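Example 9 (inverse folding). The structure is encoded as follows.
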C-alpha cells in the first residue's frame, strides 16, 4: 500500500525522532511506500513550502503555518488553525497526486488537515485513518490551552465536521474509545479501534552513569527522578515541584531533573537555580536524551486534575526503553497507570498527592527488590503492547477490513487485487 501521513510534528534534524517518524519508518520496513505532508506547527508562519527527504529517504512535503495578529493572542491562535488548514490544503493540491495513495493517516486535531481529508475522500482514497492521542478541543480546554465559550464550541464543531470523513478511528485506551462514542458523533460504518502509543523496540543500552552524569553536570551519586518532554501547561509540573520541595525539606538525597524546552522552561530554570535538588537541562538529540535517561533512576509522569479523558504519556516509553521504573500521578481509574502496575514496571498514586508521589519516586529509585529484573519486564511490556510494528499491523488490519467491506463478492479478481494491495 501507499500511505500519505499528515503529522504536525515530524522532526528531520539529525538525531531527532518522534512517534510519527517511527511509524513512517516501520511502514516502509513492512514493505509499504510512505510520503509525508508535514504541517510544521512550530515553524515560523509564512515560511515557504519545501520538498525534503528524511534520513531514511522518506519524501516529506513541509508546509509552514499561516497566522495573523500578535503571537500568543487569541486572534493569532484562532487564525493559525483556520488559515493553516486552508493553506496546507492548497499546497497539497498543488504538489500531490491524491490518486497515487491507498490510505491517509492523520492525528487529532484533524481540522488542521480538513481540506486534505476532504480531497482524499473525493479522490477515492478508501482508507482514511485518524489517531486520537488527546481529544481536541476537550482535553486542551481542560488543561487551559483552549479558551472556554465560543472558541471551544466552534473548535469542537469544526473537529466534529471532519471526524465523519474518516473510515477508522484509533484511540489509545478502551476508556478513550468509550469517551469517543459518548462525546462525538460517529457513522455506523466507522471503525473504532484501540492502538496504544508506540515506539521502536530496543533493549536498554548500558551506559557509564558517572561519565554521562559528569557530562551533563548532574550529581554523581544522588538518585535522580527525571521528567523529559515539553515544559508546558498540562504536564502536572506543580505537583512534581511540590514533591521536590517535600524531598528537600526532609533531607532526601533524591534529585528532580527536568529535560526539555517550552513556555514554562524559563520559570523552571529560575526555580532550579534556587534549589539544589531541582535541575533543568534543555532539550537534546534523541540518542543523547536516552543516554541521559539511562543515567537516572526513575521516570516521572503527572497528569492534571479535572480532565475527562485518559492520557497516555508517550514519554513513558522512553523511560521503559532506558530500563527506568515509572511513578505516575494520574486521574482515578487511569487504565494506562494500571497497566504499569500490572506489568511491575511502575507505581501509581492519586493526582494531587505530592507526598505519595515523592515517596513512590524515592522507593522506585532505590528499592533493590523491585528493580531486580526490571529491564526484562520493561522490554517485555514494550514488545507486547507498545512496539510500533503492532501499530502497523493495526493500521493494515483496519484497511483490510475496509477492503473486504467495499469489495463485491461477485468480483473475485477485484477482491484478490485489493487483498494483495
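The amino acid assigned to each position is listed next.
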Amino acid at each position: 500500500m501507499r500511505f500519505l501521513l499528515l503529522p504536525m510534528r515530524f522532526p528531520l534534524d539529525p538525531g531527532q525522532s518522534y512517534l510519527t517518524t517511527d511509524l513512517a519508518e516501520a511502514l516502509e520496513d513492512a514493505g509499504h511506500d510512505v510520503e509525508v505532508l508535514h504541517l510544521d506547527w512550530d515553524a515560523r508562519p509564512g515560511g515557504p513550502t519545501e520538498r525534503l527527504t528524511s534520513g531514511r529517504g522518506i519524501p516529506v512535503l513541509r508546509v509552514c503555518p499561516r497566522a495573523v495578529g500578535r503571537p500568543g493572542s487569541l486572534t493569532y491562535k484562532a487564525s493559525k488553525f483556520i488559515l493553516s488548514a486552508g493553506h496546507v490544503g492548497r499546497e497539497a493540491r498543488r504538489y500531490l497526486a491524491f490518486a497515487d495513495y491507498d490510505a491517509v493517516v492523520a492525528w487529532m486535531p484533524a481540522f488542521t488537515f480538513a481540506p486534505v481529508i476532504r480531497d482524499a475522500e473525493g479522490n477515492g482514497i478508501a482508507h482514511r485513518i485518524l489517531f486520537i492521542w488527546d481529544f481536541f478541543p476537550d482535553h486542551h480546554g481542560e488543561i487551559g490551552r483552549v479558551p472556554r465559550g465560543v472558541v471551544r464550541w466552534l473548535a469542537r464543531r469544526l473537529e466534529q465536521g471532519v471526524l465523519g470523513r474518516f473510515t477508522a478511528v484509533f484511540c489509545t485506551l478502551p476508556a478513550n474509545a468509550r469517551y469517543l462514542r459518548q462525546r462525538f458523533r460517529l457513522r455506523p460504518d466507522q471503525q473504532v479501534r484501540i492502538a496504544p502509543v508506540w515506539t521502536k523496540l530496543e533493549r536498554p543500552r548500558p551506559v557509564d552513569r558517572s561519565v554521562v552524569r559528569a557530562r551533563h553536570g548532574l550529581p554523581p551519586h544522588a538518585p535522580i527522578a527525571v521528567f523529559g518532554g515539553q515544559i508546558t501547561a498540562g504536564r502536572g509540573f506543580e505537583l512534581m515541584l511540590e514533591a521536590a520541595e517535600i524531598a528537600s525539606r526532609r533531607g532526601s538525597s533524591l534529585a528532580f531533573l527536568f529535560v526539555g524546552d517550552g513556555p514554562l522552561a524559563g520559570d523552571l530554570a529560575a526555580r532550579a537555580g534556587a534549589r539544589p535538588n531541582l535541575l533543568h537541562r534543555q532539550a537534546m538529540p534523541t540518542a543523547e536524551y536516552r543516554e541521559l535517561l539511562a543515567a537516572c533512576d526513575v521516570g516521572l509522569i503527572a497528569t492534571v486534575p479535572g480532565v475527562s479523558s485518559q492520557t497516555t504519556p508517550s514519554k513513558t516509553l522512553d523511560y521503559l526503553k532506558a530500563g527506568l521504573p515509572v511513578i505516575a500521578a494520574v486521574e482515578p481509574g487511569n487504565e494506562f497507570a494500571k497497566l504499569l502496575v500490572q506489568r511491575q514496571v511502575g507505581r501509581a498514586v492519586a493526582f494531587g498527592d505530592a507526598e505519595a508521589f515523592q515517596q513512590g519516586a524515592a522507593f522506585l529509585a532505590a528499592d533493590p527488590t523491585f528493580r531486580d529484573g526490571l529491564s526484562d519486564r520493561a522490554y517485555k511490556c514494550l514488545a507486547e503492547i507498545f512496539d510500533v510494528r503492532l501499530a502497523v499491523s493495526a493500521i493494515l488490519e483496519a484497511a483490510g477490513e475496509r477492503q473486504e467491506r467495499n469489495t463485491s463478492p461477485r468480483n473475485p479478481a477485484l477482491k484478490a487485487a485489493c487483498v494483495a494491495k
